[in-house]
Design a protein that fits this description.
Elements: H1 2-10, H2 17-41, H3 50-53, H4 56-95, H5 121-130
Bound molecules: zinc ion.
């Protein structure tokens, strides 16, 4: 539709030719902006022409859905961070009695310093607090 209007403006055999060119340039700019916005709202790369073929009402609906989805995702992330911090604090308190005691594994591979197990849970907990694997 915009392309047709541009063609009509450019063919306008009237003294307002300069104005017609300015209007045509502006229409092309706005069309390009609309395409960029449509692509952004639709999530970037997509099937050729899909985003641009959507009506403004559809794009508004998709934008609102995106906002709701992202809002829910952010809320989930915040809840997960709160839970992570709560568990980190609990684990820190649970490990406090062990101080800096290092694991001492016997010849069978059991930690004699803590709970006499092959895969010492204290080592696991310490590693988890550091974001590492034991
Ligand atoms: Zn240990």
């Amino acid at each position: 539709m915009a392309d047709e209007l541009v063609e009509r403006l450019l063919d306008w055999p009237y003294q307002g030719e300069t104005m017609a060119h300015e209007a045509a340039d502006r229409i092309e700019q706005l069309t390009a902006e609309r395409e960029r916005l449509a692509l952004t709202i639709c999530g970037g790369e997509d099937a050729p022409g899909y985003a641009n073929a959507q009506t403004v009402e559809t794009l508004e609906h998709v934008a609102k859905q995106n906002q709701q989805y992202h809002g829910a995702t952010i809320n989930s992330l915040r809840a997960a961070e709160v839970e992570r911090d709560r568990l980190r604090e609990a684990l820190t308190r649970l490990l406090a009695p062990f101080g800096n005691d290092a694991c001492h594994y016997d010849h069978h591979g059991y930690c004699q310093e803590h709970f006499i197990e092959a895969d010492c849970c204290v080592a696991h907990a310490r590693a988890a607090l550091k974001g590492e694997t034991p």
